[in-house]
Amino acid sequence: MDLKQWVGIAAGLLTSISMLPQLIKIIKEKKAKDISILMLSILTTGNTLWAVYGFMRNDWPIIITNFISITINSITGYYRIRYKDR
């Protein structure tokens, strides 16, 4: 792999885990009323389209990093709905 690929992988991984601190906070505090469902929906839709694009290009770093994002965002959405009134 060349430097461009490593930079792309690093960028993808950092972007993918960017919501992880928020998810951890939600789980610890059992509160999520300030999290926007619309934002999570838009973000997850965008990640899904990126993953589809990755499949179309057979680009595994794009596919994997966006599936990580989709997973974290979906779990965050689940807890947002579960803890909406707290």
From TrEMBL:
<dbReference type="InterPro" id="IPR047662">
    <property type="entry name" value="SemiSWEET"/>
</dbReference>
<keyword id="KW-0812">Transmembrane</keyword>
<keyword id="KW-0472">Membrane</keyword>
<keyword id="KW-1133">Transmembrane helix</keyword>
<feature type="transmembrane region" description="Helical">
    <location>
        <begin position="36"/>
        <end position="56"/>
    </location>
</feature>
<protein>
    <recommendedName>
        <fullName>MtN3 and saliva related transmembrane protein</fullName>
    </recommendedName>
</protein>
<dbReference type="InterPro" id="IPR006603">
    <property type="entry name" value="PQ-loop_rpt"/>
</dbReference>
<dbReference type="Pfam" id="PF04193">
    <property type="entry name" value="PQ-loop"/>
</dbReference>
<dbReference type="GO" id="GO:0051119">
    <property type="term" value="F:sugar transmembrane transporter activity"/>
</dbReference>
<feature type="transmembrane region" description="Helical">
    <location>
        <begin position="6"/>
        <end position="24"/>
    </location>
</feature>
<feature type="transmembrane region" description="Helical">
    <location>
        <begin position="62"/>
        <end position="81"/>
    </location>
</feature>
<dbReference type="GO" id="GO:0016020">
    <property type="term" value="C:membrane"/>
</dbReference>
